[in-house]
Amino acid sequence: MSEVVKLEIDGKVIELPVVIGTENEKGIDIKTLRAQTGYITIDPGYKNTGSCFSSITYLDGENGILQYRGYPIEQLAEKADFLEVAYLLIYGNLPSKKEFDLFKSSITRHTLVHEDMKRFLEAYPFNAHPMGVLSSMVCSLSTFYPESQNPNRAKEAIDMTMHRLIAKLPTLAAWAYKNKMRHPFMYPQNDKSYCENFLYMMFAMPSEEYKIDPVVVNALNTLLILHADHEQNCSASTVRIVGSSQANLYSSIAGGISALWGPLHGGANQAVIEMLDQIMADGGDMEKWVAKAKDKDDPFRLMGFGHRVYKNFDPRARIIKKACDDVLDKLGINDPTLELAKKLEKVALEDEYFVQRGLYPNVDFYSGIIYKALNIPSEMFTVMFALGRLPGWIAQWKEMVENGDPIGRPRQIYTGETKRDYIPLEKR
Ligand code: ACO
What we know:
Layout lengths: L3 E6 L2 E9 L5 E3 L4 H5 L19 E4 L4 E4 L2 E2 H7 L2 H10 L5 H12 L6 H9 L6 H15 L10 H27 L12 H10 L10 H13 L7 H10 L5 H13 L6 H14 L4 H9 L20 H17 L4 H14 L2 H5 L6 H11 L7 H22 L26
Antiparallel strand pairs: 1-2, 2-3, 4-5, 5-6
Bound molecules: acetyl coenzyme *A.
């Protein structure tokens, strides 16, 4: 394989090094391109641009492979605990028993949030979207822990910020929901596991005992693992780019939450359920909605379909589709939305438009149906995604800092007016 590529430009030939990853992913290193030629590259949406070297997640979109630190997603989803996966992503290896106990106890001891933060919550309108609340509350954490604003802190202090975030996000997420319902906040209980504690804070009431269903806990554990990282997606890239200015970790994660909120990214899980409800209310004519999705003059898209990287299948969608059947079966739920989703998938997958473009169900197509079965309201779906993705965002941020990556600052090709003189207002 070539070690360099040659580029001929304005009659001059330059050589650019080829870089190859451990899974044989190939790239051209253009770091010196502008200095050597005066040219930059243009790649809107970064469809061909590698922004970093990373050893966290490997993804092969053509073959539907996803691995965290080398471990296949299928194995982790079936066997691991979410906090174990969080440790793996952040620190690079599965923890030993001792390391895991220490990690869990550090997370457990920081689940409470400052009482003053409750006052912020109470000031949000009752119909505030929980993603807006979550992003703002996470950024606000930086004001309660001002030491986090120092980019040159000791490693232990940085670890503490990472642990605080993982510990407090479920509390903030559950409280955003409680606040919306105008229900009393439930405080974390540190004898419960991570997933149990979240479910408790979401659904328990002070007036009666809340029994946690292990089927629900397992389903939540699997969903969080499936969402835990996905290399350089929109929100992870946002976290890296915010953090590259040495902004603190809380504000970098708040940026990631905001990026995730959009319906083309994590917000798709809410949009999928809304779409399926709409199709059902409209009589369930699949052909009509598939035709709308294909019509370039119609803004409608099949939500939960298509992916920038996966062009054959999304391995997470396969696992979730199966989990969906299992969970609904175990909980004794017969949700017509699941049948509708399966029919819609079948119609779309047989359609030339979707086949040609490699459009398959992504992770969000079936996740909303499980969340619905777990009684989680649709506005909270993307919050659930954020809970799962947090360790991935933290790992991406940590790697970026440790690699000493430069501040993220793309260039552009200017297409505006050329120089012109100012005309005073009265002469315009
Ligand atoms: N429905 C209908 N057509 C679609 C869809 C869809 N869901 N997705 C892509 N297409 C079409 C595009 O119109 C385009 O057609 P063209 O070649 O005729 O112009 C072609 O497929 C390629 O699509 P792009 O938008 O160029 O692909 P891109 O990689 O930029 O976008 C994205 C990927 C944003 C995920 C897109 O497929 C989409 O909008 N899907 C629906 C939203 C969604 O489910 N997002 C969640 C993604 S997973 C995640 O973030 C966790």
